[in-house]
Write a structure and sequence with these properties.
This protein is 59% helix and 0% strand. By secondary structure, it is mainly α. The chain has one domain.
Amino acid sequence: MDIDKSKFNILAENIKSCITEGVFTYRWALIEMAHSIGQMITEFAEQEQVSMSSFLTTLSQKVGRDERTLYRAARIYKNFPDISKIPDGKNASLNKLNNLLADPKENKEERCYHCPIKGHCL
């Protein structure tokens, strides 16, 4: 059976486009979720006139997510209240945003998961 190379190349390009769009949609959905959660947390803290630290631990237990995840969501919202201003376009990801906005005070592990040498990958 002979394959038409032209049609095959078109198929490959269509699949690549589909993957690119799917990955972008997935990443952007996570960013939208974090932004919405951050907005809810920030607005609650403002309305109740309390600091986030006074309720994030309890909230994290109630929603089943890590306290740091909720804190990072609030940080994303505070830094980018207009979600359209989030940098990197189609290359945007939640991980890149968290790294961009990383708080130097956050606890970092002495060694990464892949490297046994202390401080090597930090």
